[in-house]
Automatic annotation (TrEMBL):
Membrane topology: Multi-pass membrane protein
Domain of life: Eukaryota
UniProt entry keywords in alphabetical sequence: Membrane, Transmembrane, Transmembrane helix
GO annotations of cellular component type: membrane
Signal sequence segment: none
Subcellular location field: Membrane
Name of the protein described by the UniProt record: Organic solute transporter ostalpha protein
InterPro entries recorded: Ostalpha/TMEM184C
Native source organism of the sequence: Perilla frutescens var. hirtella
Major localisation: membrane
Residues that span the membrane, as ranges: 12-31, 46-66, 87-105, 125-145
């Protein structure tokens, strides 16, 4: 590949494609480790669903970037799958947290410490990014000649590129958040060895 002779479209697609490949690598590496050390199916099934969120988002954004001008039905189908998977991943994450905290999902249990407390919402970063891109296009900072697309598709393309890059970071962070060590037996062996020395 000669990067010097590539146009903006090819460079953007190559960078986004490389990001998607890294996301797939890290996610499937962690997924295969959990499948190899399948010790706690209830927890690990939830972890596998959460791990697959990064590749689903990355692939969806990459196809949205490749197919930004045409093929709306295909992208709408892919986007619908992503939205449904997002709901599944959030519900699974909540169930996993309940499992870790030993809270029953069958009862409506609210700990006394949080009853009646006001819930503070987090900053809507995705909305902020969309508004920022709208402002940049409206002021003329981002123009159609920055990309291979017309102005109406540039915002969507930038968001798709950013999601591809963000998912690499997310996949790397998942390596630490859902590490396989608690299921591999290495931790138990180290604790037993430490108890023998004490």
């Amino acid at each position: 590949m000669d990067f010097a002779n590539m146009d903006r479209r090819q460079l953007t697609l190559a960078g986004a494609g490389f990001s998607v490949m890294l996301t797939l690598h890290y996610s499937f590496q962690l997924l295969s480790q959990h499948m190899f050390y399948w010790k706690n199916p209830k927890e690990q099934k939830a972890i596998l669903i959460i791990i697959l969120m990064a590749p689903v988002y990355a692939v969806n954004s990459f196809f949205g970037l490749v197919d930004a001008r045409g093929g709306k039905p295909f992208f709408m189908l892919l986007d619908s799958v992503k939205e449904c998977y997002e709901a599944l991943a959030i519900a699974t994450f909540l169930a996993l947290m309940y499992s870790y905290l030993n809270i029953s999902m069958s009862r409506n249990v609210v700990p006394d410490e949080i009853k009646g407390r006001e819930i503070h919402l987090s900053f809507p970063m995705t909305l902020f990014l969309g508004v920022l891109l709208d402002i940049l296009v409206a002021t003329g900072i981002i123009r159609s000649y920055h990309f291979w697309l017309d102005t109406e598709h540039v915002e969507e393309a930038i968001q798709n590129v950013l999601v591809c890059v963000e998912m690499v970071i997310f996949a790397v962070l998942q390596q630490y958040a859902y590490h396989v060590a608690p299921y591999s037996g290495d931790i138990e062996a180290k604790l037993k060895l430490q108890k023998r020395h004490d």
